[in-house]
Structure formats: structure tokens, C-alpha cells
Specification:
This protein is an alpha+beta fold. The protein has 19 helices and 22 strands. Helix content is 31%, strand content 21%. Strands 5-4-3-6-2-1-7-8 form an 8-stranded mixed β-sheet. A 5-stranded mixed β-sheet has the order 9-10-13-11-12. It has a 4-stranded antiparallel β-sheet with strand order 16-17-18-22. The longest helix has 19 residues. Belongs to the DNA mismatch repair MutL/HexB family.
Length: 643
Amino acid sequence: MSDIIHLLPDSVANQIAAGEVIQRPASVIKELVENAIDAEAQEIHVLVTDAGKTCIQVIDDGKGMSETDARLAFERHATSKIRQAADLFALRTMGFRGEALASVAAVAEVELKTRMANEELGTRIVIAGSKVESQEAVSCPKGSNFSIKNLFFNIPARRKFLKANSTELSNILTEFERIALVHPEVAFYLYSNDTELFNLPAMPLRQRILAVFGKKLNQHLLSVDVDTTMVKVSGFVAKPETARKKGAHQYFFVNGRYMRHPYFHKAVMDAYEQLIPAGEQISYFIYFDVDPANIDVNIHPTKTEIKFENEQAIWQIVSAAVKESLGKFNAVPSIDFDTEGMPDIPAFDQTRPIEPPKVHYNSDFNPFKTSSASSYSGGGSYSRPKVDWEGLYDGLEKASKMNTPMEEEPFVDETDWTSAPASVDMSEERTPYVQETETVSSPSASLYTNEPAVEKGAQHFQFKGRFILTSVKSGLMLIDQHRAHIRVLFERYMNQIRQKQGVSQGVLFPEIVQLPASEAAVLESIMEDFSAVGFELTPLGGGSYAINGIPSGIEGLNPVELVRNMVHTAMEKGNDVKEEVQTMLALTLAKAAAIVYGQVLSNEEMANLVDNLFACPTPNYTPDGRTVLSTIKEEDIEKLFAR
């Protein structure tokens, strides 16, 4: 029987190994920039073309490499960081696996020019698919110049699954921001298709954070600084009033390395307990300095997950440090005692006799008498005024029911709107979707066959400001007014996007929305859909946009938060299919503009909403699958009165 197990060729083994390290263009930039930092570079330039799919170039002024080192650097498990296994537990550098350059060379065409400071000539090496094509001496500046072209050219399946340029560029910017935040002493420059996106000279940490995320963040940052024998924690946390549901900037760094750590994230959020609304997030930039022997950075291929030896103790330190920062800078609400006009408390004198306080009162005063002989300083008799106490309680019972928290508040909590529309006008002028369905006098089975039609001339009743009750042929139908309006508005906005006929309402005073580079790249990719739905955005440069117009019908909402949340949703979904992006935008806008729970509707408004709901293709559910209506059958109602 012949043997069936054999060793893989180096080229195939390198491609398999590259799958763990190199996932997308952002992975290449991460590895090359980290190597440049390890080479003690003070200035790093990153240039990408077509979001890195065509070309990635990383230029640094570091130590450079000799001719032998330049060739050896592309071999697997070749590294200058470790000599023996024990060195893994004393690492303070970035790259140490010895697989980065080998993995890049296995899936791309690589050109390297490098020279050491004490050498007159440098070395140029060209490698494609792990095969060295040429090596020669050249004249070049000190440092290293990597040019990565045609990523995944020899693995078409991998290249096919790369996302759209906007998505890949957003990932590149995210990786770039992480590295720039942890090395403020290094100057970073990033160019995309010859357009400068980042120009970050060496600067203090706080200024580096502001340079990346905007100067408006300056007034909201509180410094954190605590030093223990176990760990040193420093950095910044944001004030509680800056909490938001989406888009918070949350970063952990350990010994100069970015990491994700859900356990420590809970420690930070624990310090904000009862200071921010449930479900909202806060921004933070926290840096750990810990003995490398007490952590393991070798548990994940991308080295973004780190294991700590004393996680529980560090959890307590982090939580206490953040709480101390919030208290020190008066970010925690406190009672302000007004001491002005209060008498001074005399010092205790042992020789002075203690006199009990004396109580002065009028023994003739009786509050139950309508008149009294008691007189006041102003003279005259005292007469107790008659007060209609019962009148003070009128309407309180109804108001308390209207404001009782619902067991389930879908949609409202999923988006971060600073204000809601005060009222919703169901007339034709305010709600264009009425015009689309005005020929439908009542729902019919042809429009929706799974539900009985609303009876002609049926009256609608509102229950607890949340449900609309109406009579149907099979019984009693309950409709969730908020979800029903979402369904109707979603169809309206989707129709506007498809036909590019969104009605825009100009604003008297344009507002400015400032976005980080990674979010601005996403906004640019969906700008056409924003315009189709009714937004008028004008780029001002530097990630700033002027909001000159908003979709008609969402007056009262905060347009800045609305734009920011729609961009964050697009980033979270990661959709590249245009239809999916349009669906997401329409749904987000519908959730924002829909009538809220507790809003009182007239019978005409309820009738319009019900009619337009049944004109939708699928009135039973919201676009994201929530139940809109439910029917109680007539026979079930009769059973309740059987006895």
C-alpha cells in the first residue's frame, strides 16, 4: 500500500499560514507599520491605492536591514525579537512571530528597498508568491520601503471575498488609528489614492487623540492615572454626559499593543453605573503597563486578545481608577449645600453650661377652627383658607398610566436620538405616503390575504397610548402604533431611495457633523443613498460635513446624531450590497421618525395609519421581523362571556 501522507511544498504552506495573519489589506498595513515601529522609526508614511487592493506602500526611517537580513526576513519563523522560548514572556515589541513578511510575500508581489545608516548602498529584493525574482544593490534612503502589489493575486478565491473599497479603506483607517493612538511619539502620514487622510506629527498623547477624533472631544476627557505594583493604568475616560448608544471610541492598550478585553470593558462600565442610561456606551482610551511575564500575547493570530495572570485584581484596579477620576473631576453628581447666610457653629467650651433649646409656640392656636383670636404681628384674626384638595389630583391617574414604562420598548432604545418629534401630522401635506394610497378606501383581501379586512366604517380606539383597536370580520384587531408607523415609513423611504425622489427640507441654520476618518470613508460610500432619502450634506474637509437639508417629516430630530447613527449602523452591518445599504438607511430613518408610544392620535389619524398599513406588502411585521398586529377571534371573545 502506497503512502498517502506527504509534506506540503513551502509555497502552499506559506499560503495556508498567510490565511491566519493576512486577512485583508488592513492586516498587511498593521504588520508592516508595527515592524517599522520595532525598527525605531520616527516617521512612517503609508500610501494605499484602491483601498490596498492594487498597491500598499509603507516607508519608514528606521534602522533598515543588511543584505542578508533583508533576504532572511521573508523566511518563515525568521525574527529578530526572540532567541528562545523564554523570550516570549519578556516581549515589549510588536511583531515577533516571524511570519508577517513571509505571509505577505506568499500572497502578493513584494518589493523591498532597505539600507542601514552605516551602509553606502542598500538592497532591493523582489518576491512574488514566495519566489525570489531578483536581488540587487541600489541607492536608497536609510530605513525600509515596502511596496505590496496585487494582494491575493495567486489566490483568486480570497481576492473575490474582499469587500468594497469603502469597507476595506475603513478597516485600514481603523488599524491605522489604533497604532497612531499608542505611539504618539512617532509621526504618521496616510494617503489614499494620492489624497492625504492623516497628517499626525509627533505630539503628546492627549493631542494625538484629538487629532484623530476631533478637537470637540477635548472638553469631555478626564485623565486616569494609577500606579500599583501589579499594573500601571493611565489614559482618559469621557464624561458621563457624552454617553451614546453607538459610535463610542473604546480602546485598551497593553505595553503599546491594542487589545480587546470584554472583562475589563465591564470594569469601566461598572464605574459609570447609574451615571449613564442603560444600554449606552462611553468613550475611553486606557493604557496598561504590566510586566510581560504576567501576560500572554500569543493566544491569537492577530494578537488582539491577551491573557492576564491576575485579571480579577486588575478588574478592581481599573474600576477604582475610573471611579476616582470621575470623582476627582466632579463628573459624579453631588449635593451642593448653600452655606451662604448660615450661622457659624461655635466651638465647644467645657466651662460653659449647657442650656437646652427653648420652644416657643402659641397655646391658643387651633388649625381646625375657622377663626381664631390669635393675632399675628400684622394684627387681625386668623382664618384658615379653604382649599379644593381633590381638584389637585384631577388627571393624575390618567397621566400615571400614560407614563408607565412599557415592558417592551422596541426600536426606541436601539437608536440614539436626542429628541423625538412633538407630533405627527397624518395629513397629506405632512405625510406623502397618504397620497400613494388615497385611492384605497379600506383594506381588502387582494392587498393582504392572511388577515381579515377592517370592517367598513369601523371606529378605531387607542389603548394606553400604544395600541390601536379596530373591528375586523373575524374579531378584534390590536395594532402596535409605533411599529405600524415604522412599516409605513419604511416603504415610503425605500420608494424614495429607488426613485431618487426624496423630499428635502432645508434648515435655517446648517449644523456641522464631525466624523473620524474611518467613519467619513463609510459616509462617502453611501452619500448617494443619503441624498436619495432627502439629506443634503456638503463636505467641508477634515471629516466635517454641513447638514443643509433633512428629509421632510423628521423635524424635531437631531440631524447630527441621526447622520452619525446611520453611519455607525452601516459600519456595524458591513454591507456592500447596495440594496442592503438602502434597506438599512430606510429602516434607521423610519425608526427615528415613527410616532412614539404615549402619543395621542385622533380617529382620523388612526384611520389613515391603519389604511396605509394595509396598503403595505407585508403589514404583519416590521422590516426587521417584529410583530405589528394581532387578532383576537370573535369566538374567543364569546367564550369569555359564556357564563
